[in-house]
Amino acid sequence: MATFINPFVDRGFKIIFGSKDGKVLLIDLLNDLLEGEHVITDLSYMNVEMPACCTDSRTAVFDLKCKDKDGNFFIVEVQNAAQSYFYERSLYYLCRMICDQDKPGDEWKFSLCPVYGIFFLNFKSGKTDKVRTDIVLADRSTGRQASNLIRQIYLEMPFFDKEEAECENGLDYWLYTLKNMEKLETLPFKGQKALFRRLEELAKIVNLNKKERMEYDECLKIYRDNKNTWDYAIENGFREGQEKGYKEGIEKGIEKGIEKGIEKGILKGKKEGIEEGRITALREIAEKLKSQGMDVATIVACTGLDADTVAAL
């Protein structure tokens, strides 16, 4: 039995960072991420659901959406299962936040506030080979930042491989603790960060109230089901990809070479098999949760499906 909750389970993440007691922890984490360039002294939590602006557009649901006293917006999310186009989807969400600042009338002079997207990815996206990817609007020739209105920070946790003794700064302390929290019996770095004593209390499973424990257990089950589904999809997708690859490779081998055809077929079949299996399983889980009365926003957060897909089930 784990001592601490898994922070990459949606409900666990919100218990730590999405409550009044956890706000100071979220502020500390964001300040460590933005060290040397921006200091947050206070945050206000906002409605995480952004309704569709027209019948043909999408509803956006975030894990956490906040605003600091200077008017800067922060979207903070955790994502467990690999998804196609996640970078593009997150950019779309940030653009929605920019557009939502629109005001009618001639007096508005495009006085936009910056929008920060902080995304903790519990998988390798395939777009990088490092922990942190930091995207800004910059001049292509000089690399100089041209605007601070959109900022994307992706933290790919599988690339963080530091041991406890190797952690050197506040962000290292956070990443090590979050990545290993479910396996720890006591939290490290309390000497370096006094706030981690509060983190330790909030994250202990025995300290959850009845409602929090029920919701956490349900989300933990979904998290584990998704992981098992993903592992199964990888294994079977690879097998199906091999069979399809060999067939297509042999057929195309006359023109392009048997070896090249087999390789292409294996990769394509594996990718298609994994994605199709994952989406089918997530739809089944979402449909079951919906039939049990769980709200759309929570289902979206737990499964990663978009709100329109869940609403249509």
Structure description:
- It is a single chain.
- It contains nine helices and eight strands.
- With 313 residues, the protein is of the alpha/beta class.
- The chain folds into two domains: 198 residues, no CATH class; 101 residues, no CATH class.
- Strands 1-4-5-6-8-7 form a six-stranded mixed beta sheet, sandwiched between helices. A two-stranded antiparallel ribbon has the order 2-3.
- Helix 1 crosses helix 6 and helix 7 packs antiparallel against helix 8.
- The chain is globular.
Uncertain stretches of 5 or more adjacent residues: none
Measure the end-to-end span. Answer: 35 Å
Rounded to an integer, what's the Rg over CA atoms? 22 Å
Which structural class do you get from the secondary structure elements?
alpha/beta
Strand line-up of the largest beta sheet: 1-4-5-6-8-7
Output the helix-strand order.
Answer: HHEEEEEHEEEHHHHHH
Q: What is the overall number of helices?
A: 9
Count of DSSP strands: 8
Shape: globular
The largest sheet, given as strand count, sense and whether it forms a barrel, is: 6 strands, mixed
- What's the mean pLDDT score? 84
Which features characterize this protein?
313 residues; two-stranded antiparallel ribbon; 6-stranded mixed sheet; 9 helices
